[in-house]
Structures are given as structure tokens and as C-alpha cells.
Design goal:
InterPro entries: Adenylat/UMP-CMP_kin, Adenylat_kinase_CS, P-loop_NTPase, UMP_CMP_kinase. It catalyses: dCMP + ATP = dCDP + ADP; CMP + ATP = CDP + ADP; UMP + ATP = UDP + ADP. It holds the Pfam family ADK. Keywords: ATP-binding, Cytoplasm, Kinase, Nucleotide-binding, Nucleus, Pyrimidine biosynthesis, Transferase. The protein has 286 residues and is of the alpha/beta class. It folds into two domains: 84 residues, no CATH class; 184 residues, 3-Layer(aba) Sandwich (Rossmann fold). Helix content is 52%, strand content 11%. It is built from ten helices and seven strands. The strands form two sheets. A five-stranded parallel sheet has the order 4-5-3-6-7, with helices on both faces. A two-stranded parallel sheet has the order 1-2. The structure holds adenosine-5'-diphosphate and cytidine-5'-diphosphate. The site of cytidine-5'-diphosphate (CDP) has 20 residues, from helix 4 and helix 5.
Length: 286
């Protein structure tokens, strides 16, 4: 038998296994119609318990392998024993990988995105920037998209229902166990809604501490064509950060979850403090 034939046989064997796993997902879905699957059609779901996202991941990845499959259009999915990742801390059981979320917070221009990019490059985690997701959404031309565009221009915080549903969808698509959520939660409404909806507690909060004058200079030099990187909106964003976001950092600090980083240094020096924190998490990843 040639190497090529052997490889083909392996591929077909994997496909057969994938198909039977997806069929078991489908069967479970019929037995538990209360749980919604958005793996293949996120736009059809208004609310998804995050504890189900893991099963969505499993189904989505299998669909990628063995598409098109009947299960990819199932209206609902429940928990097969074989599912891989469970996004709910509360729902963690033996044999399932636990979702690890790190909130990345700090004032506008403190360097959140810059440090997240470095972490992604080194550790391959999923980076979800709430701001990036909202900016993409504002281009949709929908009423919600237009509202987001206006709120960003004014430096205001968009209602959680919009931001959380974008995060959910991106999380599902990303399908990773370790997730950096950058720029969220930004106020008490964000925090409480996220906790109520997902039950997820962050492993820790990376807080980039930076003087306003430094952040202002960086933002004015950012040149990404953003509607909010002008001095008027920057000042509003600083105010919103102090009034609405600092209390969230204090909330997690009281729980011992904040890792405060001095962000007023060269990016490499900042990263030297950030990387060991995330590296330590890697050993817990399944
Ligand atoms: N440690 C740093 N020193 C100097 N400039 C930085 C540093 N970190 C980021 N920047 C620059 O500052 C601007 C804002 O950084 P960014 O990562 O987009 O911040 P945030 O995501 O917190 O708004 C960008 O132009 C970026 O290149
Ligand atoms: N959780 C979030 C995150 C961002 N946003 C909006 O997106 C804007 C930009 O956020 P960002 O995180 O991309 O950028 P920075 O302000 O941190 O530089 C904020 O000023 C808010 O208008 C929000 O409404 N809710």
C-alpha cells in the first residue's frame, strides 16, 4: 500500500468518526430542544447560554471537517459526553476543557491592543477586542450598527446586549479555550450582564495603568482613521474610563483578580511583565 493510499484511508476514517459524533450531537439536540445552537447560524439566536458554546465549538469544528452534515442545520444542541470545551465555569466537568478568560482593561491608548497582539503571536490565544467588534458592527448599516457608530463617536459605552452578542458570536467562531477579552467589561452594566448571562469569572484582569497625558499623546498619534481619536472625544473617553471603568477594576481588585501593569514604558518592557502571567495559565490548558 502506498503512503498516499494509507493517508487517504486515515482521512476517511477521521471523517467517519467525525460524522458519527455529529450525528450524536444531532440526536441529543432533538432530545433537548430548549438549548440553542448558534454554531452554524448565530444570527438566528437571540440568547445562547454560554455553557452550550462548548458544544457549539465541537459541532462547528466537526462540521468543518465533515461538511455538509445534517447537524450543521440542527435547531438545537445539547451536551454530548464527547463535547470538547465548556465555556461555563459552573458547568465544568471532568473530561472537558475549561474556558479561560482574561479581561484586558486600561484607559484608552494604554496599549491593550498592542499587548494582546503580542500574546496572540506567542501563545495563540483568541483575542476579542470589544471595540473592534463594535467598529465592524457599525458598518452593518443596521439600526443597531448606526447607534453603535454614534455612541463610539461620542465616547459612550454601547449597551451590553449588543456587545455581549458580538462577543458570543466571535467566541464561538474562534473556538479556542483561552480568550483575551479586550476593552470589556467597561462599566457595571457590562460586567453584571456578562456575569448573569455567562456565569464566567475571569482568570484574572490585566490592567494597564498609564497616565492620561501619555495615553492622550499615543491616541493622537494612532492614525487609524477612528472617529473617536480626536481630542474632544478622547477627553470624554478618559472621563468615562475614570467614572465607569475604574469601578470595575476596583471590583475585581477587591477579589484579588487584578494584575496591574505599568504601561508607561516601551512595549517590550510592558510585555516582559505581561507574558509570565499568561504563560502561567498555559500549563492549565488542556
Ligand atoms: N508601550 C507603548 N509605548 C508607546 N506607544 C505605544 C505603546 N503601546 C501602544 N502604543 C501605541 O499607542 C497607540 C495606542 O495603543 P493601543 O494598543 O491601540 O491601545 P488601546 O488598545 O489600549 O487603545 C497605538 O498607536 C500604539 O502603537
Ligand atoms: N465594552 C465596550 C468596548 C468599547 N466600546 C466603545 O468602543 C470605543 C472604543 O473602544 P476601544 O476599546 O476600541 O478603544 P480604546 O478607547 O480603549 O482606545 C469606546 O470608547 C466605546 O464607545 C463600548 O461601548 N463598550
Amino acid at each position: 500500500m502506498t503512503v498516499r493510499t494509507r493517508l487517504l484511508q486515515q482521512v476517511f476514517r477521521s471523517l467517519r468518526q467525525a460524522t458519527s459524533r455529529v450525528e450524536s450531537v444531532s440526536k441529543a439536540a432533538l432530545e433537548h430542544p430548549t438549548v440553542t445552537l448558534v454554531a452554524c447560524a448565530p444570527q438566528q439566536s437571540k440568547r445562547m447560554p454560554w455553557s452550550c458554546l462548548g458544544y457549539g465549538f465541537a459541532a462547528a469544528s466537526l462540521v468543518t471537517v465533515a461538511s455538509p452534515l445534517e447537524a450543521s442545520c440542527s435547531p438545537a444542541v445539547a451536551a454530548p459526553q464527547t463535547a470538547g470545551v465548556d465555556l461555563s465555569n459552573a458547568g465544568m466537568t471532568a473530561g472537558k476543557a475549561k474556558l479561560q478568560v482574561i479581561f484586558v482593561l486600561g484607559g484608552p491608548g494604554s496599549g491593550k491592543g498592542t499587548q494582546c497582539a503580542k500574546l496572540v503571536q506567542e501563545f495563540g490565544l483568541l483575542h476579542l477586542s470589544a471595540g473592534d467588534l463594535l467598529r465592524a458592527h457599525m458598518k452593518s448599516g443596521t439600526p443597531d450598527g448606526n447607534m453603535v457608530a454614534e455612541m463610539i463617536k461620542q465616547g459612550q459605552i454601547v449597551p451590553s446586549r449588543v456587545t455581549i452578542s458580538l462577543l458570543e458570536e466571535a467566541m464561538l467562531k474562534g473556538g479556542k479555550q483561552q480568550v483575551l477579552i479586550d476593552g470589556f467589561p467597561r462599566n457595571e452594566e457590562n460586567r453584571a450582564a456578562f456575569e448573569a448571562q455567562t456565569g464566567i469569572e475571569p482568570e484574572f484582569v490585566l490592567f494597564f495603568n498609564c497616565p492620561e497625558a501619555v495615553m492622550e499623546k499615543r491616541l493622537l498619534g494612532r492614525q487609524e482613521g477612528r472617529t473617536d481619536d480626536n481630542i474632544e472625544t478622547i477627553r470624554k473617553r478618559f472621563k468615562v474610563f475614570m467614572e465607569s471603568s475604574m469601578p470595575i477594576i476596583n471590583f475585581y481588585d477587591a477579589k484579588g483578580r487584578v494584575r496591574k501593569i505599568d504601561a508607561d514604558r516601551d512595549p517590550e518592557d510592558v510585555y516582559a511583565d505581561v507574558r509570565p502571567l499568561v504563560e502561567a495559565l498555559q500549563s492549565f490548558a488542556v
